[in-house]
Amino acid sequence: MGTIEIIFLFYLFILIVIGLGAFNHNKTKEDYLLAGRNLGPWVTAFSERASGESAWLLLALPGAVITTGLSISWSVLGIILGIIFSWYLIAERLRSETEKYNALTIPDYLHKRFNDTSNTIRTFSAVIITFFFLFYVSAQFHASGKILHSLFNLDPLTGISLGAFVILTYTLIGGFTAVAWTDFIQGLLMIGTLVILPLAGFIELSEAEITIEKGLELSEKVFQNNNSSFFKGNTGFPALITVLTGLSWGLGYLGQPHLLIRYMAIRSTNDIPKARIIAIAWAIPAVIGAFFVGIISILYFGPTFFETIDPEQAMPILTEHLLPPFLAGLFISGAVAAMMSTADSQLLVTASAITEDFFYNNKVKSRIKLNAVNLNRIVIVIIGLIAYSIAIFSEIKGNNIFSIVSYAWSGLGSAFGPALVLSLWWKKTTRKGIIAGILTGFFSTIIWSNISFLNVIITERLVSFILALLAIVIISIFYHDKT
After folding, report:
1. What pTM does this model have?
2. Is 246 contained in some domain?
């Protein structure tokens, strides 16, 4: 066993140890789901960023650059802007409001904020979160298979199984405290990967006198696209659509429950300005670095290399070629960190949506004999196994991570982003408007993404968000109620 493999296995061992260390901190539901609302600004910021930029940042985004080219730069810009807007528009007000209403989840906050005695908001929200997070978690499990295949030459199905086992283990044991602290470590590894690897690549390429222009031109011939064009070779309205499609990634940050709970868990609203600076300072070099990992992979290996190799494996392969074994082991661990830091958070949020927003607030609660923490753990296992099955199916069918994440990102962002922004900033928002917006975001994502010619015209990430926003505004104005 080589140095890279030893470091990777040691890293997995550390994650389990952190989970065990956090076990005794989980005495209440608030401890297990929000770390007792006692996270400091550094841990909050790194946890939010590590969880937000899942394996798709280190695997799927470089892979998309290889196959699509410079037009992905609009996605990079959209991601950075989305992170900034989320921290400025939502973080501080959400922390204050959720404490005011003693809410442990996003559906719980919306339920209490609009005095929804019918439980409609809570029930629909729990269903939507569960539905989309099943796909999102499966994408992270799927990514583990790709990483472990490139590292140990394991069968991808075996890699998916190992990754799922590790994530489920430390999430079950440690709850949100373990998740937040492992995210802090993972965030450090991820930023190291996305800064040092591109720099090492540029140094290597400069010595070989290889230019970006030449590499993109060659890539264009292989993939038969417009890799060297920021607009995919389009002009006029089609070029505008290319820009808006990329920028639309930013809208999703306003409604991702696994990121929003970081704002709810921070120690105080006074810590948010510091956490915001840390998070943005992490995001800018990390996202740009992921973009350049894809560019450098084209230049270093040549585009024909990826005719037979999955482009989404570019980062770990490039790392093994460019860096010493010790650093390569750390940074490949960083790729797995990206996957794990998102999957663990999503498992917790899904479990809390089911237990807090369905079981404990409907007639089902009278039949549940388990305490809240243990019930959350059982739900995590069930959700994890379903997501694992979807990941296995995706691997067999050959689906890529990028498309799965885009689907879930759109659904969650559209269902909850407009609802949260308007509930925090627009006093005329009503209960009926929130219900209309949540359902519109949910159904429009599913319908639009499954009608191929519509999705070719413009992405569901943008359309669903706009439709949900309009639904809330229109229904709130024309069907105004006292809530």
Report:
1. 0.88
2. yes
